[in-house]
Design a protein that fits this description.
The protein contains 20 helices and 27 strands. The chain has about 700 residues and is of the alpha+beta class. A hairpin with a 5-residue loop joins strand 24 and strand 25. Helix 2 packs across helix 7. The chain is globular and about 80 Å long. The relative contact order is 0.13.
Length: about 700
């Protein structure tokens, strides 16, 4: 009897194991491939491994973009594509399942299925070309494919990635995470600079810290007749929102150099021959939360009961080896948008740019714009839900677009709080028109900067953007980077190339703002014991993180600790406690307090291990790090893709760039795994070789994929 019971239990375990190992790929739906077409792309890799992709048509080029990126980072591309199918959890486990839930909650696939065929034919052809390039690589490298039935992918998969990821750049993940966790939604709906961990994985929505710097200088301020722009995005150095550099040229006039994210079929920022732009995260309130009145399966709206729309979804959660657990979830929606149910009730969420995919066309049109009129026409598509755009062109024009799809709102309601969901008085569908989007064009100061600070601090005294209507929800706070940049630029009569680069790589802390208040509390407080020992050293600090002073390492730990104070979603830390913690860390790992900054702050990739300067929320950004086993801080987020673009007085474009690692960040055997790191830590840039003529003598290899 016992033997039979044991054999029966063993059989059940075997059946369960087989079920866990086979259900996900067995039930997954394979996608239809893009329409059959012969693509003719040429990829020329320069000596830094950067792909320059050529083709007769734009879709030919898009095919080459997909193939080249897969050669360098196929593992990350697969995670992004799995996210678009609701299968990321089958690769990355519980964290990926959170992103899959968000994809279902936003009903992204339904949006794409409804609107995809209405996209312009040239946009769909571009998406098909990109997907076909990814499929070609997967076909030839089947051993690298992580999930059965993930390939072929098609244009709909590519677009779904945009629909899911876009709202998470302005803080939707924080609102969803709070509501799912039975917490009140944060009053500041936007992502913070505090480094708060997101509720989704890097392959999904947004970076773990919202950051970036951007600078543009007009000829009248440059002193040499040049127009210049620095793109200085702060993104994770690895993963689904890490920058990938590329240059594209097509016979249809598509010429562009810049960088893209895994899953995007074109550069998202950079320059063409005549103009360029860069982005920083802005933080307007673009999310409205409504408390619903429900009786179970229904909610009340304008005096009528309506059914909550319900859908059952299954989330795959990888356990170990081949075993994947199916987890059922129900997603809800109401007239205002997706609904989260928790112990406090049902909350509907209305967010900017919901249920549309116009951003896919907009980015493409921006790359092909030849002048300010064409570029602003592309911006007026209003598909990109948020992010600042700083613009420059060969005519000397500079501009700042505080871009956002501002929800229509009605005066009299507190949109920063939780709104009543039973009435349409606080719910007005639609988006404010392009004319209402704040803009600053050709300011008298001749420069514009943004470092995730208020748009009212951009160009110096007398040149700032006027105040905007309160219902737009424009942020009014600033960052140390933003304050410091305006101070330095306003004090520099001639901002030439050398001066602009000096400002970009500045490691200083402004004597105004949150950081100044924080460090004064640390220096002036009444501390005892080890905290007093640290305070004595900090009082010798020169207020820079250039690696030359004995207090820089202590200060960088304190800068990270204090940064959260500036933002309303976190409580102000205790200065004495943070000083004691920083002192204990340095003594435990290094046996001393006056550790050189370069000994603790490191750029590490494979065998490359180099010292770095900078800190969180300084212009030379080292925003987030992992603590190594040796106590050293391995930077993983901050200055990422940096590009300097200039148009000389004759209107000719010139550009240089740098990345923390290299072109092939997930290929340890590649010579471009970390070859840019030595230049990166020395504040040096490499040539872009934008034109085919300039590239000719710097080609590593040329091939047709």
């Amino acid at each position: 009897m016992l033997r039979r019971i044991g054999l029966g239990l063993l059989g059940l375990v075997v059946l369960l194991a087989i079920g866990l190992a086979t259900w996900e790929p067995l039930l997954a739906e394979a996608a239809a491939p893009p329409p059959e077409r012969k693509y003719d792309s040429v990829i020329a890799r320069d000596r830094w491994g950067t792909p320059h992709v050529f083709g007769r048509t734009d879709p030919d080029v898009a095919y080459g973009i997909g193939y080249a990126h897969a050669e360098d980072d196929f593992s990350t591309l697969q995670e992004v594509l799995a996210m678009t199918r609701g299968r990321l959890g089958a690769i990355t486990g519980q964290d990926g399942a959170k992103t899959d839930f968000a994809m279902h909650l936003l009903n992204a696939r339904a949006t794409v299925d409804r609107d995809y065929d209405q996209q312009p034919a040239d946009v769909r052809a571009l998406l098909d070309g990109y997907a076909s390039g990814l499929n070609a690589y997967a076909r030839r490298h089947r051993q690298e494919v992580k999930l059965a039935k993930l390939f072929p992918v098609n244009g709909r998969d590519v677009v779904t990635g945009f629909v899911v990821r876009s709202p998470f750049f302005f803080g939707l993940d924080g609102v969803l995470g709070a509501l799912v966790g039975d917490k009140a939604p944060p009053p500041d709906r936007a992502p913070s600079e505090a480094g708060e961990a997101p509720s989704v994985t890097p392959a999904g929505p947004r970076p773990t810290e919202a950051g970036s710097n951007a600078f543009v200088v007009a000829p009248k301020r440059s002193g040499d007749g040049w127009t210049r722009m620095i793109s200085n995005s702060h993104q994770p150095w690895r993963g689904g929102v890490a920058w990938y550099e590329l240059v594209v040229h097509s016979g249809q006039g598509w010429d562009f150099a810049g960088a893209t994210f895994p899953g995007a079929p074109y550069p998202l920022l950079g320059h063409n021959r005549t103009l360029g732009w860069t982005n920083t995260v802005n933080r307007p309130d673009l999310i409205d939360v409504y408390k619903l009145t429900t009786d179970g399966d229904r909610y009340r709206f304008d005096g009528q009961w309506r059914p909550l729309v319900k859908r059952r979804v299954w989330l795959p959660v990888k356990l170990w080896g081949p075993f994947t657990l199916p987890v059922p979830r129900t997603v809800l929606s109401a007239v205002q948008g997706p609904v989260i149910a928790n112990t406090a009730g049902h909350f509907a969420i209305r967010y900017a740019g919901a249920d549309q995919l116009k951003m896919v066309e907009q980015y493409y049109r921006l790359t092909k714009a030849r002048d300010w009129a064409e570029w602003t026409r592309a911006m007026a598509i209003q598909g990109v839900p948020a992010t600042n755009f700083l613009y420059a062109d060969r005519t000397g024009r500079i501009a700042y677009i505080y871009n956002a799809m501002f929800p229509n709102r009605r005066a009299g309601a507190d949109y920063a709080g939780v709104l009543p969901g039973d009435t349409s008085r606080t719910f007005a569908p639609g988006t404010m028109p392009w004319a209402a989007v704040p803009k600053l064009v050709d300011p008298a100061s001749g420069f514009i900067q943004n470092a995730n600070n208020s748009p009212y601090l951009a160009s110096g005294p007398g040149s700032e953007m006027p105040a905007q209507p309160p219902l737009l929800g424009v942020e009014t706070d600033t960052t140390n980077r933003g304050t410091r940049a305006v101070e330095l630029m306003a004090a520099t009569p001639r901002i030439g190339e050398a001066e602009l680069l000096r400002i970009k790589f500045d490691t200083g802390v402004s004597r105004q703002g949150w950081a100044a208040r924080w460090f004064r509390d640390l220096m002036d407080g009444r501390f005892a014991g080890e905290a007093a020992e640290g305070q004595a050293l900090l009082r010798q600090w020169d207020w820079t993180f250039d690696g030359r002073g004995p207090a820089d390492s202590l200060a960088v730990l304190l800068m990270r600790a204090g940064q959260s104070w500036h933002y309303p979603r976190k409580a102000r830390p205790d200065p004495a406690e943070e000083m004691r913690a920083a002192v204990a860390y340095l003594k435990t790992h290094f046996g001393r307090l006056d550790v050189p900054l370069g000994d603790i702050l490191r750029v590490r990739q494979g065998k490359v291990d180099l010292p770095m300067d900078g800190a969180p929320d300084v212009l030379r950004a080292a925003s987030l790090w992992n603590e190594g086993k040796d106590g050293r801080l391995e930077v993983k987020h901050g200055d990422s893709f940096v590009m300097l673009v200039g148009w000389d007085p004759q209107g000719r474009v010139h550009s240089r760039s740098i990345q923390p690692f290299g072109a092939a960040t997930t290929r340890p055997d590649s010579p471009h795994y970390a070859d840019q790191a030595p230049l990166f830590v020395r504040h040096e840039l490499k040539p872009v070789w934008f034109s085919p003529a300039a590239l000719r003598n710097h080609v590593e290899r040329v091939y047709r994929p």
